[in-house]
Design a protein that fits this description.
Length: about 290
């Protein structure tokens, strides 16, 4: 069974997932959380069900009056509201809750976070630097391990493929479902990078072993054999992670829900790309190199 001959089809599948996300990124961008923009975030639980029945966004803004101008008011669960706006201190937060309690009864503060704009900008800068460092180190490491630059370049391109799909997916989620990207998303993104490369190296290592044992065989045949030998192991290994993440996404709390979704997208794309993106890219690179030599 020759899996590698369908590489154009694999690239088409990748493109069908990449394009919507890239278009969304270009048109809408990402919806940054307070971690990047700075400000205060409060998550409130309205415990009086009868009084909460009168809730509406306009009524809540009227209750706040001049005390606090919330940029975003969002329902995040049953009788739970999230407020995001300018940076405030604990004393102002207590005043705000006391004012709302007059209209809506007892209120419990489930979450309160404040981040300065300088810290948010610094975090964004460090995130971009971290991704660049990871990509550079991985390229250099794989280049040295396999003694050929093409392995490092193709592994990083496959890794970039996974990252863009994940970022594009959250751009779409941010536009249509108001999902924000925060520090946990950055953690999921970096985890996706490592997961993708881990599986890719396993396949590449098998290609190297088969190439040493069968130096006269065509490179495409060796790559196909390596894919067939590692595919079962890769799928079984990834399924254990995907099942665990699916369970956590369904049963886990709302605080980590989108973090788990990001990891789930990364695990699926990483499993796909290690076999159906990284190896076909290697074959394309090898063919281009041969044509250039001729």
């Amino acid at each position: 069974m020759n899996l590698t001959k369908f590489r154009k089809f694999y690239f088409l599948i990748s493109l069908s997932f990449l394009l919507p996300g890239l278009v969304s990124l270009f048109l809408f961008g990402l919806k940054p959380a307070i971690d990047f923009t700075g400000g205060s975030l409060m998550e409130l639980h309205f415990q009086d069900q009868e009084k909460f029945a009168t809730y509406s966004e306009s009524a809540l803004r009227a209750s706040l009056g001049d005390l606090y101008e919330a940029e975003v008011i969002q329902s995040v669960g049953e009788q739970r509201i999230s407020l995001k706006g300018k940076e405030i201190d604990n004393q102002s937060k207590d005043q705000l809750v006391a004012k709302l309690s007059q209209s809506y009864g007892q209120i419990e503060v489930l979450r309160f976070e404040t981040v300065g704009p300088v810290l948010g900008a610094e975090l964004l800068r460090k995130t971009l630097i971290a991704i660049l460092i990871v990509a550079s180190v991985i390229t250099f490491h794989i280049w040295r391990a396999f003694d050929e630059l093409k392995y490092g370049l193709c592994a990083v391109l496959a890794m970039l493929h996974d990252s863009l799909i994940l970022i594009g997916a959250f751009s779409l989620l941010g536009h249509f479902m108001q999902v924000e990207v925060d520090v946990l998303f950055v953690t999921a993104l970096l985890t996706t990078l490592s997961f993708s490369v881990h599986d890719t190296i396993v396949v590449y290592d098998r290609i190297r072993e088969l190439k040493r044992k069968n130096p006269r065989y065509p490179f495409e045949q060796i790559a196909n054999a390596a894919v067939l030998e590692t595919l079962g192991r890769s799928i079984n290994n990834s399924l254990t992670i995907i099942i665990m993440l699916l369970t956590l996404a369904i049963l886990g709390g709302s605080t980590i829900h989108w973090f788990v979704i990001a990891l789930l997208i990364g695990a699926i794309t990483g499993t796909y790309s290690s076999t159906f993106t990284a190896v076909p890219l290697l074959l394309v690179f090898d063919q281009w190199k041969k044509k250039r030599a001729n």
